[in-house]
Each structure stands twice: as C-alpha cells, then as structure tokens.
Structures
1.
Amino acid sequence: METDQIVKSPNHTIGVVGAGQMGHGIAQVMLRAGYTVILLDATKFLVDAGAKRIAKGLARDVEKERVTAAQRDQALARLKPTIEPADFAEADFVIEAVTEKFEVKAAVLGSLEAHCRADAIFASNTSSISITRLAAAAGRPTKFVGLHFFNPVPVMKLVEVIPGLQTAPETVEKAVALATSGGKTPVRVNDFPGFVSNRVLMPMINEAIFSLMEGVADAAGIDNVMKLGMNHPMGPLELADLIGLDVCRDIMLVLYESFRDSKYRPCPLLEKMVAAGWLGRKTGRGFYEYGKQ
Ligand code: CAA
C-alpha cells in the first residue's frame, strides 16, 4: 500500500507504541477516526490496561452521543493490543508515546525499525526532545516527524507537528493530514527544545512550584490566581498533577540541558516530590490528594 493513501481512506493501520496516558488517548482518537490501531506495550498488563481505558473512553463517547454503540463496537474490533513488535509489520504510520527520556525512546524506535515497512512513517509524541535527534536514532530521518498531542488527548484540539532537519515535506503533509483526520488542529512548529507548547508552559508551571516553595501562597491560592485572574481552565499546580510531575521534571531537564540556561532549572520542590513518588493524579498524590486512582 502506498503511504499517501493514509490520508484518503480510513482503512489504514496506525501502530501506537506505549499504552499509557498519551498512547491510549492517541489510540482512542485514531480508532474513532476509523483507523485500525495496533497498540503495543512491553507487558500484557500494560497493554490490557491501555485497552481498558480506551473501551471506557469510547463508552463515554456513546453516552455523550458522539458515536453510536455500533460505531463503538466497530472501533473496538479494529483495536489490536499486542506485546510483539513484529505485529507493526502492517503499520502505515507508527506513533511512539513511551516515557519522555531520549534513551528509552531511541531504544524503542530502533527496535521497531527492523519490523516496519520501509515506507512506514514514524512519529514521536515527544513533548520536548529533539525530533532531529530521535529521527537519527530511528534510522529513517526523511520519514520521521514530531506529532505532539495534549492531555487529555480525546479532548484537546491541538497537535504540534514538528519536522526534524531531514524530514521530507510529504512526511509533514501526511502527519498534518493524519492529525486533521483525527479531528485535531495541527500547528506546524520548528524543532527547538520544548517546541512552543512546553517552552512556554513548563517554565510557568516551574515558577508556580517555586512560588509554592517560597510560601508566596498555598497551592489553591496559586491555582486560583491563574484560574480567576488569567482565565486558565486549570491552575498550574493542578495541571502539573494532570500531566505528571515526573514528566514536568523531565521536560524542564530537556530545556535546561538544551539551552544550558539556569532559568530552566527544575524547582527543588519538584525534584523532591518526584523523588518521593508523588507524581500527581496517576499516583493519587501530587500538589493535591486524589485518593486511589
Ligand atoms: N481524560 C479524558 N477525558 C477527560 C479527562 C481526562 N483526564 N478530564 C476531563 N475529560 C473530559 C471529560 O470527561 C469531559 O468530557 P465529556 O464531554 O465526555 O463530559 C470533558 O473532558 C470536559 O471535562 P469536565 O466537564 O469534567 O471538566 P472541565 O470543563 O473542567 O474540562 C479539562 C476538563 C478539559 C481537562 C480542562 O480543565 C482543561 O482544558 N484543562 C487544561 C488541560 C491542558 O492544559 N492540557 C495540556 C497539558 S500539557 C500537555 O499535555 C503537553 C505536554 O507535553 C506536557
């Protein structure tokens, strides 16, 4: 199959690697758009957990009358959970959504390369790591692109589309078309650390954590200032809990190490909370307590 058919027919196969918070959301969006999705993770437990979250998300779509029960059933029938990278042989488009660490992403992308068709496009959902660097690690630099979704993926409209230095223009066009077909609004952004979204968002969150650490206000006070004064839908500390404090710390480190500028140093309180395992909603505790998740 020619990859340029990706934009024309829903009967294509998207391989999503990583069934966590971002990966399961991306898979849900692609299933809803009519694609077949192969969902890959390292263990059966992880991949089954992702599939369960997708089923729950699609059930919510039925409740809200965004899809019919029959469409939900068809979408779920197009979901192929697996722990075998060899199953990506059928994929037209691969979206990587694993841990936000270069070494982990590079190892996963490198291991998939041998199993995928030469004409398959690879995309990374990285929130801050250089697409050019990941493209080199994946071994297909002209067919590699950044496709950065936002949390919660089924709800948020934006996808940053980021070409690396060697990305072919048709790869970018196909990534834009894929995002659009999933109901998202793509914005093209150049390959600089943190792109636009996290270069602007993460220093704000980090500064909110410094404000908490220095006792400028308590967590609710800081969040209320930003919600009521700036009309943000969530305060920065609530948002950090949603994103995951480990993810916030990892992104700050990418900015810090890439620009070598102390203004991007992760706040010591953020480091301490990550060390304690208080990672936000996913562990039941971050700046707020959530009970058992
Ligand atoms: N997962 C899936 N769906 C969710 C969700 C979640 N975690 N949280 C809320 N939703 C859904 C709700 O189910 C609801 O959908 P329905 O239409 O089915 O009811 C919808 O979102 C609206 O939710 P609510 O009415 O409960 O709440 P709300 O109006 O307060 O909106 C919100 C919730 C959409 C999360 C909103 O608070 C918001 O936009 N917050 C900011 C989120 C944001 O900034 N995300 C970007 C983070 S940065 C990032 O992801 C990139 C990165 O690289 C770190």
Note: The two ends are 42 Å apart (CA to CA).
2.
Amino acid sequence: MSSVLSPSNTSISLTRYLIEEQRAGRINPDLRLLIEVVARACKTISIAVGKGALGGVLGDAGTPGAASMNIQGEAQKKLDVLSNEILLEANAWGGHLAGLASEEMDTSHPIPDVYPRGNYLLLFDPLDGSSNIDVNISVGTIFSVLRAPEGVTQAQDQDFLQPGTEQVCAGYTTYGPSTMLVLTIGNGTHAFTLDREVGSFVLTTRGMQIPDDTKEFAVNMSNQRHWQPPMQAYVTDLLAGKEGPRGKDFNMRWVASMVADVHRILTRGGIFSYPLDAKCAAQGGKLRLMYEANPMSFLVEQAGGAASTGRQRLLEVQPTGLHMRVPVFLGSKAEVETAVRYHHEFDAEQA
Ligand code: AHG
Ligand code: MN
Ligand code: MN
C-alpha cells in the first residue's frame, strides 16, 4: 500500500526540528529539553490569554484600586503574574537550569533544593506588551538562554550579567490571531505556528530574512519632544519623505507590544526603536537589556538584520544589573546603520 505522506507534505514539529539540531551537534539534550519546556509553558500561557474575559484573567493583579507593582515600578496585570508562575513552575523540575530571572521578580530565582540542577540560565519577560491585554491586542513572551559560569550550580544575580553575544538560544512567542514561536539557537531564525488541534508547534518559516532596506518605522511618536537631538534629526528626515534627504516616503506602525512590532519586522522588514528620552534617561532607556533587547537582537541578527543602542552593537553591551535598560534600534540592516550614523555624526560634532 502506498503512503499518502511524502517528505514534502509531512510537517516538521518543534520536537523534530530540535532532535535534528541535536543530531547535527548544534544543541545538547539539556538545551533541547529546556526549549521544549519553555514552548510547553508558552502553550499554557497562550490558552490563558486566549480565554480573555471568560478566563477571569484580565485586569490588574493585587487588590482593587491598589495594583501590585513589579521592580520596574509598573503595575502588574493578572496575566503578568500568571505567566510568570507558569514559566517558573514548568522550568523548576527539569534539571537543566542553574537559575531563572524574570522581569516580574526583583532578583534571580533559585532552583528548589528538591530538584537537580543543570548548566543553563533562563531569563524571560513572561508577558510583553501587557498594557495591550485588556484591549485584545497581541502580547507575547520573550526568553533568553545563557550558560552558567563554570562551577556555578546555584546561580546568583551576577552570574546572569553576560553580554548578549553569550546567548545560546533566544526566542519569543506571540499570542495573536495565531500563536507563533520564533526561535534561534545561533543557526538562523525560524518561525513555528501552533497547531491548536494537535497542540504542537509546526515549522512554518525556516530561515527568516529581514530585507536590508525598508520604508517602515516603529516608534512611540508621543515621546518626540523628549528625544535627544540625533533621534529628532533622524525622524525629522524620515517624516520629510520623498522631498527630504531620504528621498522616499516612510510608513509608521506602533503596536506597543515589542513582540508584535519585532515580529512584523522579521516578517517584512522595518526599523523598531525605543530611544533614550528625557522621561527614561535616568534609567538608561525604556526596554530591558537582558530579557527584551538581547533576545530580540540575537533573533534579528540571525535573520540578517542589525541591532544597536544607537552608539554600540546591542549584543556587546556589558550588563550591570538584571533589570538594566538600554536604548534600542533594531531591524533592517541599512536602516539601523542610518540611525546609528545620525548618532555618530551628532557625537562627533559635540567632541
Ligand atoms: P512590558 O509589557 O513587558 O512592560 O513591555 C512593554 C514594552 C514593549 O513591549 C513596548 O515596545 C513598549 O513597552 C511600549 O511602550 P509605550 O508604552 O511607550 O508605547
Ligand atoms: Mn516587555
Ligand atoms: Mn512584561
């Protein structure tokens, strides 16, 4: 009897993709398990997000009128807290981690003594874009994996403070019209779509490629008056369109969920920026280096794009704290280089 399945119409699940990467020697069984566990936790978060008001999970965490706050000084949503707990619980027992760190926790989180420990460190933003939850716009989870320093089995905060170039894996899931997982282990950036009936992630784009040039930018324009001069000059020239020095018209998109904005850029190009502004200058920026900027920069570079603070390659920034913030420019390579040039030219004039 001939089979109706041929290699061209069998789908590649995340499990199969990871097993094949393991056979090729690019990941070991512990990292494979780690990625599978994170993906499974994200499926659970996806179900909670998808239930919306029916799940009783919308709104602020804490007591009515007194939302609980995280270390960032931001009000926590119920789904921020729930997503954090789902990721912590899922990753505690597998034996692949020496520690965890999260946007929602002040300090790193030890692996409970009852479980074995491994060599990896996991950092995550359990729910990114949470200001969008209550209005039913895409949110996501961002994660980054580092190796624990030699000999460390119970990681402390300082063990996590490694530049983004040290990441061995990074990814995000986006909970949108479909749930997608976008992943890199340093061998390209690949997108998987959740088959909700089967309950498994299926490879839908192998080797995402960001076009070098773009006509689309993403920034919160309401901060314009607070920006520094090079950012003012860069955006002024974008807005001048065909008649200006850039010689082309630009379109603008801003979802205010980094996952959704970065996903658009990985899919069709663009530049995403959250520059320094007068409101966030004291903290060094708005977005967090360890679990927002670094994993997204790794994914973007692996897809042929670029990521910078405006003055330095993002992945080379030496972190000074778990919740350190940085300015971010990432996406289409030529456009990121143009934004960086405005910063360098301004700095040179000042010198
Ligand atoms: P989080 O919900 O994890 O705190 O992150 C929100 C971030 C990011 O997703 C987004 O790009 C940015 O904050 C939105 O900023 P604005 O509120 O200035 O639009
Ligand atoms: Mn975030
Ligand atoms: Mn978050």
Note: Residues 125, 128, 258, 292 surround manganese (II) ion (ligand 2) (CB under 6 Å).
